[in-house]
Design brief:
Layout: E1 9-17, H1 21-32, E2 37-40, H2 48-51, H3 83-96, E3 101-102, E4 107-113, E5 116-121, E6 126-134, E7 141-142, E8 156-159, E9 174-177, H4 181-191, E10 196-199, E11 205-206, E12 209-210, E13 213-214, H5 215-225, H6 231-241, E14 247-248, H7 252-257, E15 261-263, E16 266-270, E17 273-276, E18 279-280, E19 285-288, E20 292-293, E21 323-325, H8 342-366
Parallel strand pairs: 1-2, 1-6, 2-3, 6-21, 8-19, 9-10, 9-19, 10-15, 11-14
Antiparallel strand pairs: 4-5, 5-6, 7-20, 12-13, 16-17, 17-18
Helix pairs in contact: 1-8
Length: 367
């Protein structure tokens, strides 16, 4: 797992960019077929992207639905893993299957030269490959609303990806913006020690249990069937793009019972303070739980829509043969970006990669 030495060009059939759940799942499928590939990870240690998240974070999917291909999550089925358990599981997964992960290897550029891809890294190394799989996942660049730039500098602002625990925040009331899972979890944690306002439209919630069983016992079969190729799946996909995530197991009354004050959406700034649909607040801290935007500035290929997302079908990019994406939100199913759901997409992408490699070998023999 050591980084490659710089100053030389290495050649592989396939380069996988990203050492998280998507890249590791794909690595498992490629390794089982003896493929020639490498996984590049910007992190110093496998799982670090999870270790950096807030201390009290837990998955909203139980361990039974949080395993990668070939290795169930090592915990009781109903247990909800915390972020460090997830990180350690990823590390053990890579070790168990002896996956060729190179840590401390941030990719800075991907371009196409002739019929191959050239991948450059921050360490000065260069790799060439017939196939590139971008498996950097759904959480890339923190999304902040424009109003955040107009607020008073006296207000400390954090994105949820940079929040760790209440002790890291200055004293005073906190405004948490975003009412889905991250916002609700962080607001509840902070409400134990300080005044908390929770801003945003009500996204609704999903009960944790239905008829005595975990909700995912009922949802998982539906999530498997509702693909982007079905009418129902396309409706779900459109709703998610509009911010349609529901809170999992946190009803409105739990928030109000914790003393959290619900306010409307942050619509403007007035005198340096946030205004929530007419109500001016004076928080000392704002935590923006407003999601993430795509960030593929390092890919020098004309394969993106105006919104920054790649044009693809099931992760296959028709405009750039040999380029694939994995781990996108609703790449093919609503579960595509979940730890327990990415494996199906990984198996599909692995098959496309291996088929293309086989076809190119045949073409080379015919020349």
């Amino acid at each position: 797992m050591a980084p490659s030495s710089s100053g030389r060009v290495e050649q592989f059939e396939t380069v996988v960019i990203g050492g998280g759940q998507a890249g590791l799942s794909l690595g498992h499928h490629l390794s089982s077929r003896d493929a020639d590939f490498v996984i590049l990870s910007a992190d110093a240690r496998i799982g670090d992207s999870w270790r950096r998240r807030w201390d009290s974070l837990r998955l909203f999917t139980p361990a039974a639905r949080s395993g990668l291909p070939g290795m169930p999550f090592p915990a009781p089925a109903s247990h909800f893993p915390d972020k460090d358990e997830v990180a350690d599981y990823f590390e053990r997964y890579a070790e168990r299957f002896d996956l060729p992960v190179r840590t401390n290897t941030r990719v800075t550029a991907v371009e196409r030269v002739g019929d191959r891809y050239v991948i450059r890294t921050a360490r000065g190394g260069t790799l060439e490959a017939e196939n590139v799989v971008v498996a950097t996942g759904a959480f890339q660049r923190p999304r902040l609303p424009d109003v955040s730039t107009r607020l008073s500098p006296k207000i400390r602002q954090f994105h949820s990806s940079h929040y760790t625990n209440p002790l890291d925040l200055p004293p005073g009331p906190v405004l948490v913006v975003g009412t889905a899972n991250s916002g609700a979890q962080i607001a509840l944690e902070l409400s134990r020690v300080r005044k908390v306002f929770l801003a945003g439209r009500d996204v609704g919630h999903m009960p944790r249990r239905i008829l005595g069983a975990d909700v995912f016992s009922w949802l998982w079969p539906v999530m498997k069937r509702a693909t982007a190729d079905t009418r129902f799946g396309r409706r779900l996909q459109a709703k998610l793009r509009q911010g349609g995530d529901k809170r999992m197991g946190i009803p409105h009354r739990v928030l109000t019972d914790a003393g959290i004050v619900r306010v409307g959406r942050v619509t403007e700034e007035r005198g340096g303070s946030p205004v929530c649909e007419g109500t001016v607040l004076d928080p000392s801290v704002i935590i923006w739980c407003t999601g993430f935007a795509p960030d593929y500035h390092w890919i020098d290929l004309p394969v993106f829509n105006d919104d920054g997302y790649p044009r693809h079908h099931r992760g296959v990019v028709a405009d750039a043969p040999g380029l694939f994406f994995l781990g996108l939100r609703f790449q093919h199913r609503i579960s595509s970006s979940l730890i327990g759901g990415v494996g199906d997409d990984a198996a599909f992408i692995a098959e496309q990669v291996l088929r293309r490699c086989a076809q190119r070998e045949i073409e080379a023999e015919l020349v």
